[in-house]
């Protein structure tokens, strides 16, 4: 359960009272998630989410995330909207952490996505990329190529305790991407973590997107690569071509890829598998004592990486050209 920071009841009630959302009736820690502490708030007026931002979120990035959610919501994307307190501020502090309250979205995330879900995600990802146009702020992707070597160094030789030879494998991948990472692709606001747990559905229809705390300015096709990794593999690490086709077709129904993006897709998929392997590896080796959190398996992404290493071109992901 991802609650790193506990909040005393009276402190929580006093905090919520500042937002004009009605008296607090109940606050429950949310089991899902690994990054931040999340509470479900029931007030006399409705249901909200309170997030306390933990280690990986830098306080100076919070104005970007808050303004982005507002920008996307204003353009019709169904994402959480930050709630402002009586002074008009969306960002505050609680129990020693930066904190914000956002609106609650209806819907359920899917554990085993189908091709229909993948098509919906592809389409919504392209809509997100379009809705981000005109957003006035920028944020460098701290978890792109320059961020990978420091993560590998943080894991160090302990990586081999997770899987023999992993430290060397990871370093070879990093060196490859440092030499030849695709440049100059169409860029803008990307979500950068649109995994199944961050997408809600009502029936087969996508109903909302959450968790914008890795959002940044980067190549749109990199965001698509992250989704191909997180939605289109089966539990045995085989890539499901039908799901890949559905996701790519869904994306291109809104925003067709240019040739440079098609050519870059294998490298972007390979790099994004490495990015999640690295962050998971560091988290796996550094679970905070007493934290109620189950870290994600880094080796899931080692297996996905092995698939990308064998890929020829974007047709291997289901692109029909
Ligand atoms: N706006 C929202 N509406 C409804 N539920 C939400 C909302 N925000 C968060 N949740 C719930 O809280 C859970 C954790 O949220 P979130 O994914 O943002 O946490 P996190 O720690 O950043 O997780 P992650 O591991 O995906 O980075 C979600 O899976 C969802 O159940
Ligand atoms: N989506 C990430 C966790 C959030 O950073 C993962 O599954 O590794």
From TrEMBL:
GO terms for biological process: threonine biosynthetic process. Pathway: Amino-acid biosynthesis; L-threonine biosynthesis; L-threonine from L-aspartate: step 4/5. Its EC number is 2.7.1.39. One of its GO terms (molecular function) is ATP binding. Keywords: Amino-acid biosynthesis, ATP-binding, Kinase, Nucleotide-binding, Threonine biosynthesis, Transferase. It catalyses: L-homoserine + ATP = O-phospho-L-homoserine + ADP + H(+). Residues 28-257 form the Aminoglycoside phosphotransferase domain. It is an enzyme of class 2 (transferase). It comes from the Bacteria. The keyword Plastid does not apply. Belongs to the pseudomonas-type ThrB family. NCBIfam families: PRK05231.1 (NF003558), thrB_alt (TIGR00938). This is Homoserine kinase.
